[in-house]
Amino acid sequence: IAKQIQIVRTVGKGRYGEVFLAKWRDERVAVKIFFMTEESSWFRETEIYQTVLIRHENILGFIAADIKHMGSHTQMMLITDFHENGSLHDYLCTSVITPQKLQLLAYSLASGLAHLHDEIVGTPGKPAIAHRDIKSNNILVKRNGQCAIADFGLAVKYTSEMDEIQIAQNSRVSTPRYMAPEMLNQTLNQQQFEEFKRADMYSVGLVLWEMSRRCYTQVPGSNTTTCEDYALPYHDVVPADPTFEDMHDVVCIKGFRPPVPLRWQDDDVLATMSKIMQECWHPNPTVRLTALRVKKTLGRLE
Ligand SMILES: Cc1cccc(C2=C(c3ccc4ncccc4n3)CNN2)n1
Question: What ipTM goes with this model?
Answer without folding.
Answer: 0.99
